[in-house]
Amino acid sequence: MASFFRLTKNKQFNYIPRYYNEQEEEMKKRKERIAREINSENSADKTERIPLMKGQIRNYYYQNTKGIKRKSNLRVLIVLIILLFMAYYLLMR
Questions:
Q1: Which helix (H) or strand (E) is 62 found in, with range?
Q2: What 3-state DSSP class applies to 8?
Q3: How far is 60 from 53, CA to CA, in rounded Å?
Q4: CA angle, corner 63, sides to 62 and 68, nearest 5?
Q5: Between 20 and 30 A from 33 (CA), which of 43, 54, 65, 82?
Q6: pLDDT digit string (tens) for 6-33?
Q7: Nearest to 59 by CA among 20, 30, 28
Q8: Mean pLDDT across the chain
Q9: Based on the number of CB atoms within 10 Å of its own CB, is 52 exposed (0-12), middle (13-18) or buried (19 or more)?
Q10: What are the pLDDT digits (tens) for 29-56?
Q11: What is the dihedral angle through the alpha carbons of 47, 49, 53, 56, rounded to the nearest 10 degrees?
């Protein structure tokens, strides 16, 4: 009779939450980049600077697109509100 009522045990996972600080990660990357630039200025090898410049351009582009998207969304919202007011005015006339 006991075998009919045997319940399965809950599964346990070994999950360890991690803390992620984006600003700290960016600061570490900047420090490493500056250290590499200083080392590359001391040496004659300038090939390391090209990927760094590409990364800087990419970061600049992404930061600017965030602002552009916000402005675009704001414009769409304003146009939508104006259209709703116009429709309300025409329907209640």
A1: helix 49-91
A2: coil
A3: 11
A4: 90
A5: 65
A6: 777 888 888 887 888 888 888 999 899 8
A7: 30
A8: 80
A9: middle
A10: 989 988 887 877 666 555 555 566 666 7
A11: 140
